[in-house]
Design goal:
The strands form two sheets. Strands 3-2-1-4-5-12 form a six-stranded parallel beta sheet, with helices on both faces. It has a six-stranded parallel beta sheet with strand order 6-11-10-7-8-9, with helices on both faces. It starts with 8 loop residues before the first strand and ends with a helix. The chain contains seven helices and twelve strands. By secondary structure, the protein is of the alpha/beta class. Helix 1 runs parallel beside helix 7 and helix 5 packs across helix 6. Strand 1, helix 1 and strand 2 form a beta-alpha-beta unit. The relative contact order is 0.17. It binds NADP nicotinamide-adenine-dinucleotide phosphate.
């Protein structure tokens, strides 16, 4: 008969990023620890993290509060994408309501270096307004949502997404379905082949999708960068920038 260890602690890991998968991989299998990774369910064939996974929204803050109570969650790590502001806001409120410790893991944003021609904008709307003065052929890498703001522009777009974008999409567009990581050589080839004048990106940070920035710099092409939404603050909200720090935070919490 196998010896069953009692579950001592439960951690909810809000995921959908490479960092969340790495964290789940590091924590899964820790004796006495139940780690549940949560995915929104947007991507058709997601790269699944190690360990237990649940998929789909919780039903707003109220639903998340209920889930935390039903599952007797001891800590939440929000390792969602820096632009997934809604679920982060829900996590802050739900953790405050239930007294659950919350760590928001957010990788550092990108910073421009010598030779970069970056234009920072606060929103995709602002990016769309700026584009006509930067060029006629656009490489759009902001994801499959919220492309409506580009729909009526008289420009040509190469739209790269993991799953097909949600309409309305730009009128003159080619869709390229691909998932990172991308290489500098590959990105350089893409820019050349499609005679790209300007790149549009979110300030996602990380190395998985940074190659396009190097390729654009090498080609002297401008990049329109959408600023991140502000990180939440609040009583009991802690922050980390690396998976290693998030592992330490979780282990310390569980030992205390
Ligand atoms: P969002 O706008 O912050 O959240 C919208 C709703 O989706 C939330 O209210 C929640 O529904 C549900 N949701 C989001 N993340 C969830 C998670 N990890 N587990 C369960 N439910 C979740 O989020 P988003 O920007 O659409 O991003 C969705 C997912 O894609 C996230 O997991 C994020 O990490 C990943 N992602 C986002 C981007 C991006 O650019 N936004 C890029 C790469 C990956 P309920 O209110 O019903 O709970």
């Amino acid at each position: 008969m196998p010896v069953l260890r009692p579950i001592l602690s439960t951690v909810l890991l809000l995921g959908g990023t490479g960092e969340a998968r790495r964290l789940a991989g590091a924590l899964a299998g820790t004796p006495g620890l139940r780690v549940v990774s949560s995915l929104a369910g947007r991507v058709k064939a997601p790269s699944l993290p190690a360990g237990e996974v649940r998929i789909g929204g919780f039903g707003g803050t109220t639903g998340l509060v209920q889930w935390l109570r039903d599952n007797r969650v001891d800590a939440v790590v929000d390792a969602t994408h820096p632009f997934a502001a809604r679920i982060t806001a829900h996590a802050v409120r739900a953790c405050a309501a239930t007294g659950t410790p919350l760590l928001v893991l957010s990788r550092p944003g990108w910073t421009a270096g010598p030779g970069d021609r970056w234009h920072w904008v606060p929103s995709l709307d602002a990016a769309a307004r700026l584009l006509p003065e930067l060029g006629g052929r656009v490489f759009l890498t902001t994801g499959r949502q919220d492309l409506a703001v580009f729909a009526d522009l008289d420009l040509w777009f190469l739209v790269r997404t993991v799953d097909p974008p949600e309409p309305p999409v730009p009128r003159h567009a080619e869709v390229l379905l691909a998932r990172g990581p991308f290489t500098v050589d590959g990105e350089r080839d893409l820019l050349e082949r499609h005679r790209i004048d300007v790149v549009v990106t979110k300030d996602s940070g990380g190395i998985m999708t940074a190659a396009k920035l190097i390729a654009a710099r090498d080609a002297g092409i401008p990049v329109v960068v959408q600023r991140r939404p502000p990180l939440p603050t609040g009583p009991g909200v802690e922050r980390a920038e690396s998976v290693e720090d998030a592992i330490t935070w979780t282990q310390n919490l569980l030992q205390s």
